[in-house]
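Q: Convert this sequence to structure tokens.
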Amino acid sequence: MASAHANGGDASLPTIPIDPQTPPPKVVSFHATPDVPASRNDAFNTPQDDGRPGEYFFYLGALANQRHDFTHAIAMYEISASWAYKPAQYNLGVLYLNGHGSEVDLPRAMAWFALSAERGDTQYVYAKQLLYAHLSPAQFEQANEIWRELLPTYGDATALARAKARWREVLMSATGSRVGSAAPHMLAGGMVGLAGHHQPANYDVGNGGIIATTPGEVTGVHNTDGAIAYEQLRASRNPYDPKFETDLLSGTVTVGILTPIRKQDFDTPYKDGNKPSSDSQNPEHQ
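A:
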């Protein structure tokens, strides 16, 4: 495979990394990354959304892609890609590979696949390897030229640094410490929905009314405690840290055999000095 794509240009120029030892995958789909996830039907107005603009522009591109407005999809994906958002870079490769929004352009698709594979994501690496196996030496050389043109804007060396700077900027705006604020508690306003534990505040006074106690409530938006709103931004300096990819709102758990609680158990001293909660003492829960 490597000999079929020998570089014909300047040997000192960087080329797309290719592992000739990697066997072509048995199953690879050149379909776009799932477009508009059902979990993202909110207003993208949490602090972590502000810190990850790439996700928002990917969402806009995905909406355009669903409508087959491929020109707009490419424009939105390119903005997302400039924030080092790999799904957008991969989807750009898919669009050029399929001739959506332009003529079929295999070298340009290869360049975008190579960018998406920078972090070693299996799906993107396989896509790059599979397309590489179908390129002529001339096409691969052209792909390298395009890739080198894209690197200064979309490569991780620049784009990820840009994304991390944005992430840090949003985190630093979380408090007024830079201007000497001594406020002990902060509320972040404008958050709706349940994603990331952003439960809308509801102060029920018995008649369905709301007691407006903060500027956010006065202006009609919901508030979330800053300790929750900025949880991800404090957890990592990388907005695309793999640990953020886990969907905490769904999953599978395994539990053991349930043991009934007997009333006499509450009269037995416990080794740690603690008894079960008062809710557990309800006879209906035996």
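The longest helix spans residues 137-154.
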